[in-house]
């Protein structure tokens, strides 16, 4: 299996504070990988660094193209969709406008229209509310919208930052089922950052564990889930 | 779409950036040096330079007042010229119509303007950002017109304004100097008088910003909702900030009236308020010592622009202003920080 | 009663001026989240350019569209050269930049074309409109063009991809980047459009207030006030705000004793501020809910 994303010696900084201390890992094409770790470990920073939203050094390669030095919007156009922490929904715009924005960098009008219909199939609740202002949707619905918007890009890689945050457990389960479906059927490689390690390890096939800006553990998700020491030391359960 | 849909949810962001408390003033060493320089210059300079230095201190106080309001409590004001005018006219009227001693007019001007500012702060509570700017703008444009109103002409002198008598140095000082065969000119006396007041106001302001009230101001500036949920009486402190700022501006206005020997409605237009704003930005928002750097900018740079090109003086001024904000977007404070870092390296 | 109606009509016709300016103000606010103090001067400069083109023999409509194109380009150029470098600077520094721009443009206009008042032609003629003594055909034309502009802007923002992208970039720049929008260029585009709209406003206003470098001073303030009154997020609000401001101004001048020409501005502003105290987001603006 080819490595779709290669991260080598990534160091990231917020002003004077260094958040990542030389991260190295890769993502295989078609995998569903989860990035785990405690609060403040650097998971969100990693995703932001990939999209060049934070100052960083090191080499990041996506399908052969170097990402460092590119503007965020150009990285996105290479086929990387990022669902940020807090979802980043355009709350003053309608549901349908949010979806259209997901595809704003695409030129194929017919394809966009078809994709919007597909999103409504994946997420029927969005179809119900398509003229509503996105800010009036519930947390779970906004998360669905954020994922749908990301999919409108027809991304090769989707980055999700704590999609379970603030959502009820049942809603999270539904969401994760859909993510699995997207990974298998639409062939989208997924990297999901999660604090809810248990749920994430059930969904993913690969996992990396971050602690204070370094990767301390990498491997098959099931193995990590079954490894009691790892769970106790790094994942808290 | 129902009314509930039409709501814009905004994360409470910071319109005015926070200045770390440490960086709010100059170090003690630097301050003393500056003070010595300020004390000595008039002994070596001509009267006109002394007059300009006096105006620099006065405008510096006015910019300082704006700094407390905006840099301290995060409220915008384009209306400081109005309070300055009230202070100026108070001093002028008290001196010329009621024969009050010039020094006494200043605290009266200060208190009057404090009250005015405090009152203005009340309706302003509901406004912020661009809306507050508009309201203060209205105040600034109204003031010259109000001063011209026929109704008040008996006191204000209407469009022509009032002439203000320049004070002499106090008798005891003149007698003391006579012993050394020295004379103190009116300008020099006024300068030292202003300097004493300036230092007093400066120290008081630094103290204010370091006190509990100051922390309350800054909490409101950084995050009003959080401040209020921590028990800060937002309404009280916001209006207090307006009052203090207006009061200090009023004192500056009074001093200005005495120094310039003249008050007239068209001296206190919105252009003056905008100048004070520029002075604050150039000096560094929230950095009190920068107020004087900003004052120097707004006094001297227009003159320099005019000497470079009479026809294009406005354009030259604009270009110089752009240069300054490109080089130091955070104002003179940035230079001071660099200076501090260099000094630190020097000591090692 | 007749005096009252007449004053309302007169207010509506002056209000068209403010409505036009307010549209440009809202346009730029949508793009950059601030009010640009130099916008009036940019509009004035554009109007002078169109006047100069006509002095050189270019017919009215040719000059009009050429000026629009030049203003659009000029707005983008100003943003790229002067304000893109200030993008990371604090807001107040940007405001100082607007003031500097104001000073530069005003001064240059004064030097190039001097401060004497010039006549400016109108394509609508100035005969009484439908026989009314208070609205001329030109003023009716102004109102018409303003509404056309409003409709065009509405279509642009609601139904085009570019308009959607601009709205997104103004609303949440980071999220906009995450869908591939070049937010930096959206800002430049916003400036260009605002400059073009400002040019239209200036060209329409000049026949009434006469062409000279300081012609936009008062108009800009009323434009701001109108935009704020209408709610800074609503072009329709800006236009209605403009008419309301015109009416306020006229009524205040007619009915409040002691209010001559000089006090009209502060009184109008005071009225607007009073409205804002009651409705802080303006008449048509979305109420802003602040979250910690």
Secondary structure elements and pairings:
The complex is a heterotrimer of chains A (237), B (348) and C (292).
Chain A: E1 3-14, E2 17-28, E3 32-36, H1 43-50, E4 55-62, E5 65-66, H2 72-77, E6 80-83, H3 95-102, H4 109-122, H5 124-128, H6 139-151, E7 157-161, H7 169-185, E8 189-194, H8 197-203, E9 206-211, E10 214-220, H9 221-226, H10 228-235
Parallel strand pairs in A: 3-8, 3-9, 6-7, 7-8
Antiparallel strand pairs in A: 1-2, 1-4, 4-5, 9-10
Chain B: E1 8-11, H1 28-44, H2 47-73, H3 80-98, H4 102-124, H5 129-148, H6 153-156, E2 162-163, H7 171-179, H8 186-210, H9 212-222, H10 224-229, H11 234-260, E3 262-263, H12 270-283, H13 290-308, H14 313-327, H15 332-347
Antiparallel strand pairs in B: 2-3
Helix pairs in contact in B: 1-8, 2-8, 2-9, 2-11, 2-12, 2-13, 3-4, 3-5, 3-11, 4-11, 8-9, 9-11, 12-13, 13-14
Chain C: H1 2-32, H2 39-55, H3 60-83, H4 91-113, H5 137-159, H6 161-171, H7 173-178, H8 183-209, H9 216-230, H10 235-255, H11 261-278, E1 288-291
Explain what you see.
The complex is a heterotrimer of chains A (237), B (348) and C (292). Chain A is built from ten helices and ten strands. Helices cover 39% and strands 28% of the residues of chain A. Chain B is built from 15 helices and three strands. Chain B has a two-stranded antiparallel ribbon. Chain C is mainly alpha-helical. Chain C is globular. Chains in contact: A-B, A-C, B-C. Chain A binds chain B through residues 91-92, 131-133, 135-136, and chain B through 1, 4-9. β1 (8-11) of chain B pairs parallel with β1 of chain C.
Classified in CATH, the superfamily of chain A is P-loop containing nucleotide triphosphate hydrolases
Residue ranges of chain A: pLDDT <50 for 5 or more in a row? none
Binned, the helix content of chain B reads over 70%
Write the H/E string of chain B, N to C.
EHHHHHHEHHHHHEHHHH
CATH topology of chain B: ABC transporter involved in vitamin B12 uptake, BtuC
Quick overview:
The complex is a heterotrimer of chains A (237), B (348) and C (292). Chain A is an alpha/beta fold and 237 residues long. Chain A is built from 10 helices and 10 strands.
